[in-house]
Amino acid sequence: MIKMYGIKNCDSVRKAVKFLKTHEIDFTFHDTRESPVDAAEIQKWIERGASIKQLFNTRGTTYRTLKLKEKNLDDSGKLAYMAKENMLIKRPVILSGDKILLGYNESLFQEYLA
After folding, report:
1. What whole-number distance in Å separates Cα of residue 68 and Cα of residue 20?
2. What is the CATH number of the domain that holds 106?
3. Is the pTM of this model over 0.90?
4. pLDDT tens for residues 44-88?
């Protein structure tokens, strides 16, 4: 079973949901706004192959609002911020078997999910 983490109003998440529904792929959705993930869960994603750099969303409003570029965070600092502010996690996070996919990339979805 595929598990997707994200927020309902994110464009990338909506595209991923549409892809999965179009291809009739069963999945469960975990809304990180309603039920945030903690550092332990994020660490599990890293152990599955995601890097902090891939997970840490530097393009969003939260990153700019918190002025994190100025803080020069190391990986443990980034992990702590992602656990505290789930909006800093790149969306969606897709777990399928032993694979982890970050963001919406249709060609990767075709290769690993369809």
Report:
1. 33
2. 3.40.30.10
3. yes
4. 999 999 999 999 999 999 999 999 999 999 999 999 999 999 999
